[in-house]
Amino acid sequence: MTGSPLVPAPVLAFAERGAPWATWVAGLPRVLSELLAEWDLTPSAPTLHGHTAVVVPVGSAVLKVAFPDEESEHEALALQRWGGRGAVRLLRADPHRRALLLERLSVRDLSDAWDVEACEHVAKLYRHLHVPAPPQLRTLTSYVARWDAALGELPGDAPLPRRLVQQARALTRDLIADPDSVGTLVHTDLHYENVLAAERAPWLVIDPKPVSGDPHYEPAPMLWNRWDEVVASGDVRDAVRRRFHTLVDTAGLDEHRARDWVVVRMVHLALGELRGHPVAPDQDWLTRCVAIAKAVQD
Q: Is 189 a catalytic residue?
């Protein structure tokens, strides 16, 4: 596949992920060129990219075009609802082409901050982000119910503690039945690299994968990211709990409800690994999921 000045080589390699990705990559140069022309934008720096999107700096803004996956379908709705409070400001959107024009932020994120300090910053942002959800969003309970059904099909000899699986299923049933598990706009992918420094605020979030859900679902990504530091601490349980309690206490969340969601989420993530790689799952990732689920409740 021939390249384009707007599409860096690593993004071209996304085509190796399968036919839908190859189709998206093939059309990306045309989509970017059309958007730049239609919105009267001029690239001012080389194109950046994440795992599922490209970002073209255009002066004081950036043009983002994302792969059309289910999780990011309503990113524009979430950003519009936040209106720049705690999050990057949305300037223009074309949902059909998954295109967003966003204010340009610093490239500095929370990766180099002390993890406890970073948890404090993120927990303070929760207060701005957890507002009534737009009615168009999918519900958290619909996703959780889908994963729970798959969990029920997990073989008894799967490499996950059976008691933990049973606990996650029981918690899931209770959470699905609770009306408070829906109705709040939840980012769902809020971790260190999705919080950037800005001029108008110390930190602002980017890249939501929004659902109508429960604020207590939010902390888990802050626990499983930067895992090398947790291991290097020499006390995994203490390091996880320190992050967890910093998030819960700073944000004023209910500890027990946040704990329940962490357990459910980590077991579902482990299930995703087992389903995605049934022959040779990532044992380190499975160990991480189990360690986090146990640490928050020991």
A: yes
